[in-house]
Amino acid sequence: MKVFDTIAAIATPVGVGGIAVIRLSGEAAAECAEKIVFPKNGKTLAALESHKLTLSTVKRLSDGAIIDEVLAVVMKAPHSYTGEDVVEINCHGGHLAAETVLEELFRSGARLAEPGEFTRRAFMNGKTDLLKAEATIDLIHSTSALGRDNAARALSGGLSEKVDKIRDEAVAFAANLSAVADYPDEIDEIPQTELTEKINSIAEKIDELLLGFGKGRIMRDGIRTVIAGRPNVGKSSLLNAISRTDRAIVTDIPGTTRDTVEEYVTVNGIALRLIDTAGIHESDNSVEKIGIEKAKQNIEDCELCLFVIDSSEGISDEDLKIYEYTKGKTVIVILNKTDKFSANPPEYYEKALGIDKDCIVATSTPFGKPPLGIEELEAKISEKFLAGGVSKDDVFISNDRQKDALIKARQIAEGMKASVKEGMPADILYIDLEELISALGEVTGVTVQDEIIEQVFSRFCVGK
Ligand SMILES: Nc1nc2c(ncn2[C@@H]2O[C@H](COP(=O)(O)OP(=O)(O)OP(=O)(O)O)[C@@H](O)[C@H]2O)c(=O)[nH]1
Ligand SMILES: [Mg+2]
Fold first, then answer.
1. I need a surface site. Which of 284, 313, 321, 338 has the fewest CB within 10 A?
2. Whose CA is nearest to atom 21 of ligand 1?
3. Is 402 in the pocket of ligand 1 (CB under 6 A)?
4. How confident is the model over 165-186, as pLDDT tens digits?
5. Does 254 contact ligand 1 (Cβ within 6 A)?
């Protein structure tokens, strides 16, 4: 158990509200708070039963003037969020009330907590690991149902459990190797096939976690989606249809959209950052030209391009030119205006664009509720990005830090396989395996560098 000074912060958002929660943590949290918080039952704060909310009065330190009526609770170490003594004060919300109490706590010896400092202390005291800490931030910042659920499952330890299991397997294997290396006369060498089996078993489990990264990241961050195409094909109408709003201006005048228009939507539990762009074509108009450049840039930066075509006009050279910009991107072709006379069957588009028919959706944005073709488009988006769906027990890694550490472990496993083939002795394999164990430890934070810990906690807000 590490000893730290007493930190305090308002843990609830700024603004007018019914209550605001102030949190204090540190060995002297109760001693600090009891200078200004007086339980109505006559006891001192430090003498209160742990985890029991008690009606209390807060008085100004300098003259004893009453400044708030609160519910206070002491959570004694180690049974608290941080693992230290924690005091939480439920004061009245609003711009000033909680601030006033917090200032008095500073006068009583606490200092303002840094962003993420409570969770960092929890980590230092073994109350949480890095995966769970990251899940906490993800849960707070989640913008979609799937992202929220994945974070909640990781927070309750689902992901840590998976990584720890692999690590335990590697540790048992290391013990085995070490025994062989240390007592060659008493313990038989492990046969090559068994060595390979053991490494394969570890590698496969790491692969499984890595395979989930695509889904995990999409669930956490959503999909940056750009709507692109010629002028007047119905791009803005598509944005409005997907978001069920009138966000973008729609007219029959080509060149209506000049600047990009963005809207956040949720499609089957996935967050989409939808970006409507100016119709791309040759233009002399300087304002329009800027919009067109932005459109091209957005195509370059996107993860999904909804490439809109006016199906009543077929494919023009201009369409093909814009389609070129989407090379290398995940594209869904939208055949819009299918309510009008359509000159070509879907096969024509498959051939002309060299795209699979699974990536083509016919829409008619001004008609139907929901607009025609939009539900099919939504189903295609989830199919593409969350193939096989997500079950309620699935939990995926979701950020680069986790992925990079797992890749490192996986590469070491690959190297070990080669070493086994070359007939390397147990002590050499053991050294590699130690490194692999350390890489797995980085994922949960057992063996992580300070710099990485800094980075993880810098993403938190004050009060968490
Ligand atoms: N019949 C029919 N008309 C449509 C459909 N979708 C859009 N339109 C019409 O097509 C015209 C252009 O629609 P917009 O959504 O503004 O097209 P855009 O691609 O955003 O155009 P720019 O911003 O100028 O590049 C409007 O008059 C829409 O009402 C459709 O599915 N069927
Ligand atoms: Mg438009």
1. 284
2. 232
3. no
4. 999 999 999 999 999 888 888 8
5. yes
